[in-house]
Write a structure and sequence with these properties.
homodimer, mainly alpha, 1% strand, 2 strands, 297 residues
């Protein structure tokens, strides 16, 4: 086990972390949760998360002509959904992971019962945060639909990954694509779309940010798979080499390490192309994609 | 184990069951879920649930001057949240129950991994169903907030029940009240309020239905505790006598069986009083409360 990794993984996220963390903290407190539940949620959401999804959401809002203050409740909501999924994925009946972000996973820290319930509470809270935010009702309803649909896709990906159930006669390449689109792709795509929606964007801006989110999300997952193969556990802050041991489909496992590296470069180029219609407004998202492509944990 | 109990527990719910079940079925299909996940959700939501919460919601909508068709997505959503909570509560790390509604619980049927994920998917789907329903955006946003807040209260009650964490120096009576308000009360209250909100009601109607939901919800829980003490497992269709064995707080355990029966009568009277301002429009809800007071499973 090692110290928690640095909080921000990109210079464009850095200034957003402190205001985001404050908003997240406020959203968790004063809900009337039992103190032990509140502490469990704070433990799971803290601890040096990269805040990539809320960061993507906030930068997408800005790129679409909105501001990060209005989009903050949506950013809090997507991080709550992401964290809920990590907590449940780590459970003994799931991936059975003991370390996350260099610290004991929630069920190791608090017991399995609390980890299940805290995950459930975070998922519900995500929608409460959007529902009672000061955005226009139409915007809130669209954000709820977007986040809920992405949550369903993410869980579907997790089912394929841990249990199986793929339609018959799919090659590994196709299975892998379905897996990635669900497991991480859906939430990355939703982050960018929710930022655009919070900013009141539609049409070309929304389409550009959707395409960007799809490319960047897949790039993130391929990078993640590469880290799992190449890095030592101490550096990554979580168990590594585990996917291969578990016989799971991974990008390097199916396509090889060299092809995976080339795919990262291609997806980085796709991300740039996708965001091009937004001109200068998309510059921060290009920097973020570049930083994501180069991350080592 | 015995056959599933009869579907409707009240004559006023009976005509609502078939249209509700159709709406629920449609909401689960065509979401792009893996087939095994869809089947797990259908297994959990089927099997002779009493449909009390969606029934309360639909009758509340009607009592508030609305109709059951407009309120149907909200009814589907609350049943999904209720079923998610049953599936997770039954897990080995929670109440560890093997039988529910006279059938194997979901984790016994499909394994624990799927039961966790199917529960998660149902919770997310609940909000998706509201989010993409044809109701006005303002109504959808209010319903989301209402349901999400109730979900948080329900989970809080479950934390108190399974883990503890009550504030210090509370007598058993007070702990029990907090427990019931969360575990079942929150969702009953939300059912009635969401019906009213779906019907566009506010002010006195909303207040009357809120008060009715609080009384009827507590009455349901006290009845449930009495069934656990008094009935044989074969008749109840689930494990009974289990709360006492687990040392859990129950109404008869704290107040005694006779006092619990008297409380049911008092809460039935409270339910009638609460709904009185709605006049004839509240008659179905009074019948439902009477049927709930007399249920034996």
């Amino acid at each position: 086990m090692t110290a928690a990794p640095p909080i921000a993984s990109s210079s464009v996220l850095e200034p957003l972390i402190a205001p985001f963390d404050r908003a997240l903290d406020i959203a968790i407190r004063h809900r009337g949760f039992p103190l032990n539940l509140e502490e469990a949620i704070r433990y799971a959401t803290g601890g040096g998360g990269k805040r990539l999804r809320p960061g993507l959401l906030l930068l997408s809002a800005r790129a679409a002509g909105g501001n990060t203050i209005d989009a903050m409740p949506a950013a809090v909501a997507i991080e709550l959904v992401h964290t809920f999924s990590l907590v449940h994925d780590d459970l003994p009946a799931m991936d059975d992971d003991a370390v996350r972000r260099g610290r004991p996973t929630l069920h190791v820290q608090t017991g399995e019962t609390m980890a299940i319930l805290a995950g459930d509470a975070m998922l519900g809270l995500a929608f409460e945060v959007i529902g009672d935010s000061p955005m226009r009702a139409e915007t809130r309803a669209r954000l709820v639909t977007e986040l809920a649909a992405a949550t369903g896709s993410m869980i579907s990906g997790q089912v394929y990954d841990t249990i199986g159930g793929f339609p018959h006669e799919l090659a590994d390449e196709q299975r892998l694509a379905i897996l990635h689109r669900g497991k991480t792709g859906a939430l990355f795509r939703a982050a960018c779309r929710m930022g655009a929606i919070a900013a009141g964007a539609a049409g070309e801006s929304l389409a550009a940010l959707t395409a960007y989110g799809e490319s960047a999300g897949l790039m993130f997952q391929v990078t993640d798979d590469l880290i799992d193969v190449e890095q030592e556990a101490d550096h990554a802050g979580k168990a590594t080499g585990k996917d291969a041991k578990a016989g799971k489909l991974t990008y390097p496992g199916v396509h090889g390490v060299e092809a995976s590296r080339a795919t990262v470069e291609r997806l980085l180029a796709d991300s740039r192309t996708a965001i091009a219609p937004l001109g200068d407004a998309g510059r921060e998202l290009i920097t973020l994609a570049e930083d994501m492509a180069r991350r080592t944990r």
